[in-house]
Structures are given as C-alpha cells and as structure tokens.
Amino acid sequence: MDIKTLVSKLTLEEKAGLCSGADFWHTKAVERLGIPASMVSDGPHGLRKQVEEAGHLGTNGSIPAVCFPAASATAASFDRELICRMGEAIGDSCQHEKLSVVLGPAVNIKRSPLCGRNFEYFSEDPFLTGKMAAAFIHGVQSRNVGTSIKHFAANSQEHRRMSSSSEVDERTLREIYLPAFETAVKEEQPWTVMCSYNRLNGVYASENPWLLTEVLRKEWGFEGYVVSDWGAVSDRVAGVAAGLDLEMPASGGFNDRKIVEAVRAGKLDERLVDQAVERILNIVFRYVENAKPDTPWDKEAQHRLAAEIAADCMVLLKNEDELLPLRREDEIAFIGEFAAKPRFQGGGSSHINCFRTTGALEAAEGLKIRYAQGYSAAQDRATDEQIAEAVAAARAAKAAVVFAGLPDVYESEGYDRAHMRMPDCQNRLIEAVAAVNPNTVVVLHNGSPVEMPWLDRVKAVLEAYLGGQAVGPATVRVLFGEVNPSGRLPESFPKKLEDNPSYLFYGGEGNTAEYREGIFVGYRYYDRKGTELLFPFGHGLSYTSFDFSKLRLSAGRITDRDSLTATVTVTNTGKRAGKTVVQLYVGDCESSVFRPVRELKGFEKVSLQPGESKDLSFTLDKRAFAYWNTQIHDWHVESGEFRIEIGRSSRDIAVVEKVYVQSTVELPRHYDKDSIFMDILDDPRAVSALKPLLDTLREVFLPAGGEQADASQEAISDEMGLAMLHYMPLRSLLSFAGEKVDPAMLEQILAALNS
Ligand code: BGC
After folding, report:
1. What SS3 state is found at 752?
2. Report field, pTM of the whole predicted structure over 0.90
3. Residues labelled as active-site residues
4. Does residue 371 line the site of ligand 1, with CB under 6 A?
5. 349 lines ligand 1 (CB under 6 A)
6. pLDDT digits 0-9 by tens, 637-649
C-alpha cells in the first residue's frame, strides 16, 4: 500500500478526522478510499477487549480472556525468554480477536511503593524494565500485532495524574525515567508509543515536542505512531505540532475541527497533519495486511502457560530451616481468603475478565489441606471467629500457610496508596497463626512492597505479586517443590515507607511533583545510604544453592569505544535442579559526579542440574559505564577504574573484578573570571597555559620562601598552597596581586586559558 499517495487523496477534514478515534477503541475508516478502521485494546497482561459499552477504567465488561501475571510479577522472573513467550501468546489472542495493537507494556519506574499502578509496572530499575519490555514487545510483535509502550513519560504517580507536572532534571530523566522507552524503541520498534497524562517539566506529554519528536523520533528513531493516553489531550493543535499523531478516544469531532481551523488559519503546517495520518495508516495497514483472524486462541493452553510463568516469577523471600518445600504427605493449613479467591490482578484499565481463575485451594486438591478463611478482603475485616477458626486450623497442622496481601481497594489505577502497610486484620491474623504454629509461611499477593511487622515470627515468605489467573497452581507447585522458585525482587523492599527516597515529596504539592531524589531511586539510593532493608533489589532464594566464581574480563583496560566481555562460572552446588539469576552490576570507583554505588547492567537466568556448571558471558559497552553529562547533553564515561560485580542481589556481591576505562571524549572547558583555580589546575592544558604566570601566582598566594625558587619549572604542587588557592576565582588576582595583575592581564590570561 502506497500510504503517501493515499494521504494525498484525503481532504483536510478527513485527515484531521483520522487523527482521533472513531470511538473508544477504533481508529476511523474512510470508506471511499478503502481505509479500514482498526481496533486497539488494553493490555498489558492479557486482553481487555470491550465490544459493547466502552469504559477505559475497567468499569464495563470485556470479553472473557486470559489474565497473565502483571508486570510487577513478570519483572521478578528476570527471564526475557519467558516474557517473550507471554507476548507471543497475547499476540496470538490479538490476531484471533482482530486487534491491531495491545496497549502495553507499561514501563514507568516504580519510584515510590505508593504508586497505585505499581502492580502494572516492572521495576525501580530502568535496565531491567527496558529489557523486560523489549522481550514482551518482541513476543507480541512477532505475531504482526502492535504494542503501545506506555506511559511516556515520567508518570510514576496516580495522584493528580491528568494535571500534575513531573519536574525531573535532565540527568535523572535520561538515567532513570527514559531508558526503558529508549531500549524498547531502539531494540524492538514498538508499533506505537502512548504518551502519558501528566506534564513533564510544565508541558503536557501530549504536546511536548522535545519528548515526542526530538528524543523519541530524532534521537531514538521511533517510526510508529504516538497515541495519547485516553483523554490526555489538552491542546490538540499543539499536540499535532509536537508529534502526537492519534488522539484517543474520540473527541466528538471537536479537536478534529480545531486542527482544520489551525491549518486554514496558517497556524499549523498541513504537512504535519499529513505526517500524523501517514504514521497512523502505516500501522493500520501493517496490521491489516498481516491479519490472521483464523489464528486459534487456545485459552486452556494459555491458562497453563500463565501458571508456568507465574511459578517462575515467585520470589522466595525467606525460608528459615528450609521449611519450604512442604511435604505432600503432611497436613497443611491454608489460611486466608486469598487461598480460595486469590488477588492476582489490579484494578483499572488492565483489569481482565478471566475465563477461569484457579486459586491455591482448588489447585491443592488431593493434598491434605485444611482451609480457614481468616479474613474478608472485601470488608477488610477479620472477625474473632475467623481468627479463632484460623488458629485452630493452624494448631492442628504441620505447617500453616497464610495467603495475605493487598485487597483490591488498596492499590489500583486512578489513585495512590496512602501508606505501605498491609491490612491490620491480616497482620493480626498472621501474628495469631504464627503464635500457635512455628512453621508458618506467608504467601503475599501485592503489586508493590509492604511492611512486614511479623517477619521475625514466620519462617517463610513467598512473594507471588499479582500472578494472574493461574496463580493458584503456580503457588502450590512452588510451595510443594514441584517448581524450584527462581524469582528475584525487581525492587527494594524498605523496612518502612519513610526510608524511601521520595518519601518527603512524593505526590507533590498541588500540580507540581518534583522528583527531588533525582537519580537516587530504589537501590541506587539505599545502597549509597547503606539503609537497612527488609529485602534488597535482586534478592530471592531457591531450594538449591548456587556458586558464582571465576569472573574473567576480556581486558583490564579499554576505551569507551570498546566493549568488554565479562564471563562468570555458575554452579548449582545443591541437591535440586533449579534456576538462578546472575546479576551484573557496574560501579564507578571514583567519580567527579554523584553516582550510585552500583547499577544493574546485565542479567541472565540460567537453569542448572545439581552439580552442573555453566559459563555466562555479558557484553558491556560505553553505556554500561556512562552517566548522562548535562554539559554535552550526552552519555559520558569518566576515565578511571570501574568495578564489575556479579551478585545475587544488590547487597550480595559474590565476585568483583576491575577494569580501567579510558574516555575518548574530552569535555569542553571554558573559563571566565569566576572560574576557580581548583578547576583550572585540574586541566593539564590550562595548567600549561598558565605556566608563564606561575611565578606571579606563587608570589601572590603562597608564602614567600627561597625553597620555592624553582617553582616556575613545574606545575604548582605544594599541597597546602594549593588548598588555599583552590576555591579562589581568577578575578581574585585583581584583589590580591596588587599591580602585578591588572584587568588587561586578566583578559590575556583568560584568552590563553580558553585558546
Ligand atoms: C490508562 C491506559 C490505558 C487507557 C485505555 C488509561 O486510563 O492510563 O494505560 O491503556 O486508559 O484503557
């Protein structure tokens, strides 16, 4: 299809019309030219295809579908191949349901445990988020169905989500909030990008030319269309000019008319409208030309896949005395309503109408299980009778498993949590059960960290996150050892909310949310501070043990144009087969800018039989060592030594090697009269330019003395003198050097320094 020719045949009104939806979920058709409508659907962890009354917050019904684990869980798998398979399955369902685009993945950074949508987001870490998003996109798009990576950008809170301005400095944006989008765009070219509701540094994302055009298209090379989040458009004409192609949902023709008027009034270049239409139609036809509506959608098979994925996402946080796995022949108490009716997905636009849900109780059929409800999640209450019944069940059992976590109202799209606590009634229940049964296990269903006041009194904790509709069988398989847990925390669990770096200003004041902690998000902050955590980023136990050894680097010294290969040997030293996640962190040993102690730059999941060893290799390029330099507005590596660390978590580093990286980029330097000597003397070129002046400088600033007579032969090196000199600006020569330096001479010095 020659899209450009097609666009040239459209009237201005038709073109403007194509720039918004026909209804909640369809793009518009233009029948006279054979342009079809196309349908999109939420996402991200399954289909929420609405056929009748539409409602974007999950308020109206949608077709029965399969709910896979939410991103909070899939991130914990640290398994690209697994999430790619999930994407393939969702892509198949889209083909079956004639959907051109699934609205996901959602890659906003988990800045605070409080964000209501954390369950839908992957991680506090941009590298992990980007790689998992890319794997998902790869899977979906391998089926010739598009994705819509969202919400672009810096949309890490729900509070005032449609008006708040995320105030984020340049370096923080580049290092924390943009890289996941960047990785996905550069590696997988998502068919569409969804801009977020919020403003970014004062400008709505939906009309932000820097974000939508400069960065997304010019820098990263994005080729698809940008769609607004549902209702994110404020000024439609500014949006077209900025690079927002498709407004969703329909705007009743109001904004389309504004586009027409703006073009007619000479306020908007018609070529920008053409461009938006071309981008939209490219994708519409890409889908149409590859549509395979006869693709089968085997929901049963996907239910099984959902269980397999969920099991590999679970994170064993604690396992004292190797209480887990449980033995099938033992009497076990399953306590808590979530055992029967698990919480496995969150509220809002990602809410799926599951064709089936299997809880742990149902999945444990045939085992010796005694169930007690313990609490009511909907009422958020535990009666004395419920607790008594639970205690009785626990007392009679070999081990007690309490299924707990956050009820629906605690976390959802649309609003943020007010605290990080679990329901009081559930905390009480856990304490009561643990008091009578020393073998108490807690299984958690939540999308984000919770406080665990009872942690010392239970022997095991299994974090299931929001594990999708088949979370029940997955949990039972892990609890009873059929699956060896291999998930790792994609976020740090602080002991209390107050420890989180955004605690003092999260949510913002009025419509301004300042991201004041800057780059120090998650473990980047906790590790720098040495904060004691409940569980660190990357943590997760197994029923076997692994040894990481023999870290080899391909070179001891490289330049920032080279790449480095790090190879490590991983051995299963225990008695069971299992998977582990090898995490590679890079840390700058010494830096002139503030940097985290370490940052994740590689990860790999590997499956090993008992006694088996494998070598894993990671390739690191410039980006692995670089920080965003705001002077050159680019990634920059500061020459020096870097630690390459292989760890089990950000707090459990097993092996370390060092590499020296030499920068090939010289940062531009400019001096003026306010430049201080410390900076000048740090620059060898400036020092040589100053050489003729050194005598004068010594006479002025250093105590007189014969022993320094030959000072002009060398750069200033006397430590004390230098320390005194360090913070003096060049202009102080005028104040302290008397006649020796006059303004004309200062100009000459500056000219020499800047030459
Ligand atoms: C959400 C998006 C979603 C859209 C359509 C919005 O409220 O922020 O994530 O894709 O609705 O349902």
Report:
1. helix
2. yes
3. 229
4. no
5. yes
6. 999 999 999 999 9
